[in-house]
Design goal:
four-stranded parallel sheet, globular, about 25% strand, seven-stranded mixed sheet, UDP N-Acetylglucosamine Acyltransferase, domain 1, 25 strands, about 25% helix, alpha/beta, Spore Coat Polysaccharide Biosynthesis Protein SpsA, Chain A
């Protein structure tokens, strides 16, 4: 890691988890040690004080995780540079959201990106189109890397066919370490910033909401995690719960669940709150906790077992030691949760999600927010495109070259087979297309039933 240019604090953090791995730690969080989260404050109950908001926003910063390449969709560039709405990229929309809040509240409000080595250069180039975004702190910092470890022996994996595959990102829990090593946390504090709102760059529903910020500030809350109602579609995703021994809120991810606990983990009636990965933190408290712990926050370990070459299942088995940034809710005393509307969780992880976001299910408002069209009335849409023909972005784009179909009046769209959609196609109600041979839906077709 020294030879790879990794800073000492990041090496100390890796050492912390490596020692746990040596001692047999699996990172599992048994169901028997947890209670359901229970009632938490709800967004609709928060007060609204415009004057308090103005002061709070001026001392806040938006941090977006921007290290992803969209590899699950076959992309090899920064995912945030993908066009998603009205000709704009994720990055364009995020910038628009911040600039609008600056103007509306007369605030500084920087946008700071946590890039990876793979996304930094292209993202910086794209930001040159937005000179008005400049702020009194750096626009980005870079997450770290760590070696993949052979399951057999726990030594660093070697892979001469592609040495880059010997390294892995430490998960988005690296946010806290990278804030320290880059000097970004100190720069924010020196500039007078008190709170940070952190979310993923592919979730355009996650905007800095002055109402949440002001409430958190008035409550003197050190850390806040947003949760949404957990649905069947979310049952394999992380949820918040309470640790029985001390009542502390904790985050449990799928990789931290033993096989025997899977049914309880996926029970959306028992664990009803899904982790939206939208986080709020009081920066002076974060600095104090890091100082007390020699800059190793001590997030719960996530031990992921993979192969050194993800595309070659016969390559050696490795462990990747990861942490989740939302897990800080379990290590910062006094941390809380807030139940927010589902509209604050609109991630794009697959081309199914991308189709919905590009369609008329969502509209882009004058203040750059991505919201559901009024006709939807909060009704969720289910889209399932055949992965053999739509999983990769290039294949998806070729089959929707004329633009997405209208889905605003659609509840369910399932496609099985190779279907190319013409322009101005309309889907209504529940639509299912199945074909053994390639087919084209003609321009202007209305699909129902």
């Amino acid at each position: 890691m020294h030879e790879g240019g990794v800073p000492d604090v990041a090496i100390d953090t890796f050492r912390h988890y490596y020692r746990q791995l040596e001692e047999g730690e699996t990172g599992l969080m048994p169901e028997a040690e947890l209670d359901p989260l229970g009632d938490v404050p709800t967004y609709d109950d928060l007060p609204e004080d415009r004057d308090a908001m103005r002061s709070a926003v001026d001392r806040a910063v938006v941090i977006k995780l921007n290290g992803g390449l969209g590899t699950s969709m076959g992309m090899t560039r920064a995912k945030s540079l993908l066009e998603v709405k009205d000709g704009l990229t994720f990055l364009d929309v995020m910038v628009g959201q911040v600039l609008h809040l600056r103007e509306a509240f007369g605030a500084r409000l920087p946008l700071v990106l946590m890039n990876s080595f793979s996304t930094q250069d292209a993202t910086r180039e794209a930001l040159e189109r937005h000179p008005g975004l400049r702020a009194d702190v750096p626009l980005d910092f870079v997450q770290h890397k760590e070696p993949k470890l052979l399951v057999d022996g726990l030594t660093p994996a070697r892979w001469s066919a592609d040495p880059a595959l010997e390294w892995a990102p430490p998960g988005h829990g690296d946010l806290y370490t990278a804030l320290v090593t880059s000097g970004t946390l100190r720069a924010l504090l020196d500039a007078g910033y008190e709170h940070a709102f952190v979310s993923n760059s592919d979730n355009l529903g996650a905007t800095l909401d002055p109402r949440i910020l002001t409430w958190m500030r008035e409550q003197e809350m050190p850390f806040l995690s947003e949760v949404v109602d957990r649905t069947e579609a979310d049952k394999k995703g992380g949820h918040l719960a309470r640790r029985k021994r001390d009542g502390q809120i904790v985050l449990r991810e799928a990789a931290q669940v033993a096989d025997a606990d899977q049914d309880a983990f996926q029970d959306v009636t028992r664990h009803a709150y899904f982790n939206a990965n939208n986080l709020w933190m009081h920066l002076p408290t974060l600095q104090r906790v890091l100082d007390e712990r020699d800059n190793v926050l001590g997030l719960p370990l996530i031990r992921n077992e993979k192969t050194v070459d993800p595309g070659d299942k016969s390559s050696p088995a490795v462990y990747q030691l990861e942490t989740a940034m939302g897990a800080a809710v379990g290590v910062i005393p006094g941390a809380g949760a807030l139940h927010v509307p589902r509209a604050r969780f609109v991630p794009v992880k697959t081309t199914n999600d991308l189709l919905v976001l590009r369609s008329d299910v969502y509209v882009l408002t004058d203040d750059a927010r991505v919201v559901e069209a009024p006709e939807r009335s909060g009704t969720a849409i289910y889209v399932d495109l055949d992965p053999d023909f739509y999983k990769l972005l290039r294949d998806f784009e070729a089959r929707f070259a004329g633009g997405p179909p209208s889905l605003v009046a659609c509840q369910r769209l399932v496609v099985r087979g190779d279907v190319t959609f013409g322009r101005d196609v309309v889907c209504r109600g529940e639509v299912e297309l199945r074909t053994p041979e390639p087919m084209t839906v003609d321009d202007g077709t209305v699909l129902e039933g």
